[in-house]
Amino acid sequence: MELEKMYKALGVSQEVYAYGEAILAGLRERFDAIDQRAEYNQGKVLAAMQENRVNATHFAATTGYGYDDEGRDNLERVYAGVFHTEAALVRPQITCGTHALTVALSANLLPGDELLSPAGAPYDTLEEVIGIRESKCSLKEYGVTYAQADLLPDGSFDYDAIHAAINGRTKLITIQRSKGYATRPTFSVAQIGELTAFCKSVKPDVKVMVDNCYGEFVVTLEPSDMGADMVVGSLIKNPGGGLAPIGGYICGTKECVERCAYRLSAPGLGQEVGANLGLMPAFYQGLFLSPTVVAGALKGAIFAANVYETLGFSCVPNAQEERHDIIQAVTLGSREAMIAFCKGIQAAAPVDSYVTPEPWAMPGYDSDVIMAAGAFVQGSSIELSADGPIRPPYAVYFQGGLTWYHAKLGILMSLQKLVESGIVKLPQNPGTQSL
Ligand SMILES: *Cc1c(COP(=O)(O)O)cnc(C)c1O
To answer: Which residue's CA is the nearest one to ligand 1's atom 7?
Structure first.
């Protein structure tokens, strides 16, 4: 009763609140399973911190060249421990996920080499990195070619096409774990492992890089446990735990990571330079919190799928499916519905709650994009956010939430806005809905 009043004060009607509670009643078991995975992953992070004897000296700030930055070097050992890799590069100088991927690709591909994506088109921003869309300084400009094998109509890997695409010049295979702005399913770690093994059986010396954005700590294994040579991601997504204000990571073999370090700083300098600028407390503590934060975000994603699927909207993943990342795509079918949904997410935010999100042209994307985010860290998508390109099928991609309660409020507010704008009519007896 008290809670209901609080939701009312926050802008959620009694009707919307009741609908949410009826949906939640059916999700307890799934939430328990998420908590168990988070518990395992918390242990994994703790073990890596203990093995590397993390102590207060590792939190000291360095400036300038950052020589002998023990905090930075030890954080990289901790990441290598968590991802079970030989080496890691974890830096505030990696400005975002796209940058981390660019470093990993350009460090490990030379003129004349070919990059292969065996599972369809990569994330939007990578199109310019690779040169699929013309851009200055693309890999294409440097003489690296690109090949792609599309998924079969049922979403599975086209092994014949992949086999045919691998040739003498194929140097690196890029596999994107999360769906990005596509409506294909996210790949499981097991599927990525299978694809990695297949590519290496065709060409044993080929390197495999996995774009691990949004996938970290969702399950208990990572693609690096399944033979990937590099896993790459952003610290303003899962592994930063909401506390990292910038940064990216590349975990992998010593050989690959060393090249990445030379590419990021300079040949000859590599991992030796790069001041931490006082960010070590946020990086360590964010990684420590990440399994719990990811669990909250997953609960939000599952709640959203169950709310919207019962209202007739198509959801990827659907209401019942296992999760391999924290993204929830909801196909809303119109520009107006996308805007209403995003208004609700925005209104639920701790920061900028009074702002109205509008579609606009974003660098790196080829259609207008709408984004709702009221984040402590600009653009952070481990914080509650929703976005999507304004193009058919008019799907919003919902993700994040530093706490489950905030994710829940965001979803209820999105529904509230859809109800208020007349796009959604709630059924009278949500308890009797058949799921
Ligand atoms: C977010 C994301 C990226 C790019 O990361 P930015 O930090 O936005 O540059 C790349 N790939 C996938 C799958 C992503 O989700």
So the answer is: 97
Q: Which two tokens stand for residue 254?
A: 């010593």
Give the residue extent of every domain in the chain.
Answer: 2-41+288-420, 42-278
> Is any ligand 1 atom within 6 A of the Cβ of residue 97?
yes
Tally of CB atoms within 10 A around 312: 8
Question: Would you give per-residue pLDDT tens digits along the chain (435 residues)?
Answer: 899 999 999 999 999 999 999 999 999 999 999 999 999 999 999 999 999 999 999 999 999 999 999 999 999 999 999 999 999 999 999 999 999 999 999 999 999 999 999 999 999 899 999 999 999 999 999 999 999 999 999 999 999 999 999 999 999 999 999 988 777 889 999 999 999 999 999 999 999 999 999 999 999 999 999 999 999 999 999 999 999 999 999 999 999 999 999 999 999 999 999 999 999 999 999 999 999 999 999 999 999 999 999 999 999 999 999 999 999 999 999 999 999 999 999 999 999 999 999 999 987 677 899 999 999 999 999 999 999 999 999 999 999 999 999 999 999 999 999 999 999 999 876 554 444
- CATH number given to 42-278: 3.40.640.10
What are the angstrom distances between the C-alpha of 307 and each of 20, 91, 256, 424? 7, 38, 43, 12
What are the residue ranges of helices labelled H in 146-228? 159-165, 189-202
Encoding tokens for residue 21?
A: 């509670």
For residues 380 and 391, the answer to whether their CB atoms sit within 8 Å is no
Q: Which atom of ligand 1 is nearest to the CA of 180?
A: 13
Cα distance between residue 186 and residue 210, in whole Å: 13
Q: What is the CATH number of domain 2-41+288-420?
A: 3.90.1150.60
**Could you tell me the pTM of the whole model?**
0.95
Is residue 260 in contact with ligand 1, taking CB distance under 6 Å? no
Structure tokens at 319: 């209401």
Q: Which residues make Cβ contacts (< 8 Å) with residue 395, sequence separation at least 6?
A: 183, 316, 329, 330, 331, 332, 388
Which single residue is written with the structure tokens 């790196």? 364
* Whole-number Å distance between alpha carbons of 66 and 271: 10
Pocket test for ligand 1, best of 102, 123, 324, 385 (most atoms within 8 A of CB): 123
Residue 432 CA to ligand 1 centre (angstroms):
40
C-alpha closest to that of 223 among 90, 325, 102, 106: 325
